[in-house]
Amino acid sequence: MSDADRTEMDADRAAEDDGDRLELAARAELLEAENERLRSEYARARHSQYRRTAAGLALVGVLAGLAGLLFPDAREVLFALAAVGLFGGVLTHYVTPETFVAAGVGERIYAAMATNEAAIAEELGLTDDRLYLPTGSAEGMRLYVPQRTPDELPDVAEHSGPIVTDPDHRGLVLEPTGAALFESFERALSGELATAPEPLATQLTDGLVEQFELADSAESDVDAASGRVTVAIVDSAFGAVDRFDHPIASFLAVGFGTGLERPIRLEVAAGDDRSDWLVTCRWEVGTDERQLAETTDSETDVRADSRE
Predict the structure, then answer these.
(1) CATH of range 125-308; options 1.20.1070, 1.10.10, 3.30.70, 3.30.1380
(2) Where are the chain's structural domains?
(3) For residue 232, what are the β-bridge partners?
(4) pLDDT digit string (tens) for 143-198?
(5) How does residue 102 score in pLDDT terms, banded at 50, 70 and 90?
(6) Which side of the chain, N or C, has fewer Cβ within a 10 Å radius?
(7) Long-range CB contacts for residues 35-44, cutoff 8 Å, separation at least 24
(8) For residue 163, what are the contacts with CB-CB under 8 A and spacing of at least 6?
(9) If DSSP codes are grouped into helix, strand and coil, which group holds residue 171?
(10) Whole-prediction pTM value?
(11) CB-neighbour burial class of residue 302 (10 A; exposed 0-12, middle 13-18, buried 19+)
C-alpha cells in the first residue's frame, strides 16, 4: 500500500472519528435539553397541584361565605368555615416551594457521601460502632466511630475532628447527617422538645413521616427501663437505612441524644414482615430512672387491665 493510500485512509478514519464525536455531542445536547424539559414539566406539575389546592380551598371559603348569607341560623359556623378556607387558600398559594428536588436526586447525593465515609472508616480499621455523643454546647451532637469499643466515651467537645488520635480514643468525629434535619425539626415544633423517651419517640417519628417525608411510616417501640427505642421504618426515601450515617437513623439518634441528653448507640437491622428496617437507639439508664420507668410501666398495665 502506497503512502498516498495510507494518507487517504487516515484522512477517512479521522473524518469518521470527527463525525462520531459530532454525533455524540449532538446526542448529549439533546439529552441535556430533554432532561431540562422534564425537570421543568415536573416543577410545573407540582406548582399546578399546589395552585389547584389553593383554588379549591378558596372556593370552599367563598361558597361557605355565600351560604352564611343565605342561612342565618348557621351563619357563625359557615363564616368560620369561609375564613378557614380563604386563609388556607392564600397560605397554600404563597408558601408553594419555588424549587422541587426529587427524592432520587437527594438519595444519590447521600449515597456518594456514605460510600466515601464508609471507605475512610474501613481504611482506618474502625469498628462498626456508631456512637452519637452530646457536645454540651450549641454545636449539638457528634458522630463518633471508634477504632475499638471504648470503655469510656471521649469528650467530643475537646476534639475538633475529624480524625482523633488520642491514645485512649482513636477514630472519627463527624457532624451527623441528621444534625441539620433535627435543627429544622426543632424550629418547627409547636411546643417544647420532649425529654422522656415515649413522647420524644412520638415527636421524632411524626417528624420523619409528616415533616420531612423520609419514610412512609415509622412506628416506635419504647423500653425506657432498659434504655432502648426501636423504630420500624417502611419505605425509606433514601434507600437502605443500614448505610453509613443514614439521614433517617442519624436524625433519630441526634433527636434522642438531644432530648435525653445522653450518648446514643445506634444499631440498624433489616426489618420483618411489617417493616423494611429496624433502627434501635440505646442509652445508659441509671438505677433510679430504671425503677421509675418500671413503676410507670406497671401502672400503665394496671390501668389497661382495669379497662378490659
Answers:
(1) 3.30.1380
(2) 3-94, 125-308
(3) 219, 278
(4) 999 988 877 788 777 766 688 888 778 889 999 999 999 999 999 888 899 999 99
(5) low
(6) C
(7) 42/100, 42/102, 43/99, 43/100
(8) 124, 171, 172, 173
(9) strand
(10) 0.66
(11) exposed
